[in-house]
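Please decode residue identities from the backbone states below.
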């Protein structure tokens, strides 16, 4: 498979290198016939074959014409040489990027994306609707203030892990981009509870909010969640993970005011109790995604989840202390589950896993990592009952061995990833999975965590 991939790569690269010498008139004809989708594919092909500069060396006029038609720009290539060339081209002809509605910067661009870059781009992108720039450490509030004034149509903004984004930037975006429906400022260390409270009243159009681990140790972080729940009544997807000091008052506010909730995530909220979660699930019977991992909730919460949230597809209750019986009852009630994480839960046994295997036959992702009592008995049942399984984490399940691997190999044709670290499995039992290009994580020489994919070796 690797040889086939390399052959395709070399052919495409050689073909594009010949295109470098096309006259500008031909380039203009080619580009004029492309729609935005074709241009996007063409752009990706140039990147993948390391020929990003071939159009540009052919004709500045053709390049400008090409850029004028681009609607979706994604900077996600990781070759350092291409990054430099691409930024040089982009900055020299930023004025032609007037049709762009979506732009994203990948992790590898964090050294190159600065306030100057974003300001130059934003000045010409009045149609911009989606901007994703997670982990861009050189971006500050100054950029967001320019974006807020130049891009009024912005609906989606991701500035998660941008360590220099603070209250001023978020407030400027909230005031200037009134159509904003999706906002992610998770893990932004400089954003405070006060900044979120001040911004919340301008975010009435918000449908999706992610403030994971933002203000995580702030004693008053619940005020920020309450402000969002009070002003953002259209919220459908909320991610408040890692807010250790968050309280029941905030959960009650979200549950009482936001009537369209589909996704709720309060993982690692140590101070919330059964009463607020029970109120939440009773009022939102159409919930599809729920995370209450690493909380101190009791079986009463799980009982109410099963009673009221029959449409649930995604459930994360890892590192909780729910009983085996409560989890089995939940399995019988929530038969539409596709994602289940019960890792690090000491009460999970074979009977628990078998209950989910029998009831939730559409399961796609299952995590039972660090569940010591899980054995081949239950994993074999999972393999034969859950035919759609794509990811399976069995890490540190020391009683899982070759029988499970044989069943998984025989039955789980859609499997893409499996973790068998510290299971009772050797490489010979994994050989068939290697041949199917399944990504397998296991232990080599008792200490090395290793991922093996046959086509990439």
């Amino acid at each position: 498979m690797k040889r086939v991939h390399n052959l395709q790569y070399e052919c495409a690269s050689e073909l594009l290198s010949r295109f470098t010498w096309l006259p500008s008139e031909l380039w203009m004809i080619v580009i004029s016939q492309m729609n935005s989708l074709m241009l996007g594919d063409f752009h990706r092909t140039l990147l993948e074959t390391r020929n990003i500069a071939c159009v540009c060396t052919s004709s500045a006029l053709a390049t400008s014409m090409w850029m004028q038609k681009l609607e979706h720009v994604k900077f996600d290539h990781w070759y350092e040489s291409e990054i430099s060339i691409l930024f040089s081209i982009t900055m020299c002809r930023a004025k032609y990027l007037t049709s762009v509605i979506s732009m994203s910067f990948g992790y590898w661009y964090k050294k190159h994306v600065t306030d100057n870059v974003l300001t130059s781009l934003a000045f010409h992108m009045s149609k911009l609707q989606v901007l994703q720039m997670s982990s861009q450490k050189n971006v500050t509030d100054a950029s967001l203030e320019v974006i807020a004034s130049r891009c009024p149509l912005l609906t989606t903004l991701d500035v998660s892990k941008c360590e220099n984004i603070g209250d001023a930037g978020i407030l400027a975006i909230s005031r200037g981009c009134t159509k904003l429906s999706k906002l992610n400022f998770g893990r932004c260390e400089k954003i405070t509870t006060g900044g979120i409270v001040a911004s919340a009243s301008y975010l009435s159009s918000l449908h999706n909010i992610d403030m994971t681990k933002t203000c995580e140790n702030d004693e008053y972080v619940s005020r920020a969640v309450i402000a969002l729940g009070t002003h953002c009544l259209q919220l459908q997807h909320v991610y408040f993970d890692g807010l250790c000091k968050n309280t029941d008052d905030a959960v009650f506010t979200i549950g009482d005011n936001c009537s369209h909730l589909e996704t709720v995530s309060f993982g690692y909220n140590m101070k919330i109790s059964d009463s607020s979660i029970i109120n939440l699930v009773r009022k939102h019977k159409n919930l599809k995604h729920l995370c209450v991992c690493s909380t101190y909730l009791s079986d009463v919460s799980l009982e109410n989840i099963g009673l009221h949230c029959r449409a649930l597809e995604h459930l994360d209750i890892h590192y909780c202390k729910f009983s085996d019986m409560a989890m089995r009852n939940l399995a019988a009630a929530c038969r539409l589950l596709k994602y289940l994480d019960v890792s690090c839960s000491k009460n999970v046994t074979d009977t628990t896993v078998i209950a989910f295997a029998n009831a939730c036959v559409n399961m796609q992702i299952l995590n039972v990592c660090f569940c010591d009592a899980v054995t081949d008995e239950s994993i074999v049942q999972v393999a034969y009952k859950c035919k759609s399984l794509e990811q399976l984490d069995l890490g540190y399940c020391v009683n899982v061995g070759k029988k499970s691997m044989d069943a998984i190999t025989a039955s789980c044709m859609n499997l893409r990833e499996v973790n068998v670290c510290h299971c009772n499995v050797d490489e010979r039992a994994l050989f068939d999975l290697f041949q199917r290009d399944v990504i397998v994580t296991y232990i080599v020489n008792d200490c090395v965590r290793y991922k093996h994919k046959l086509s990439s070796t």
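Observation: The first helix runs from residue 2 to 19.
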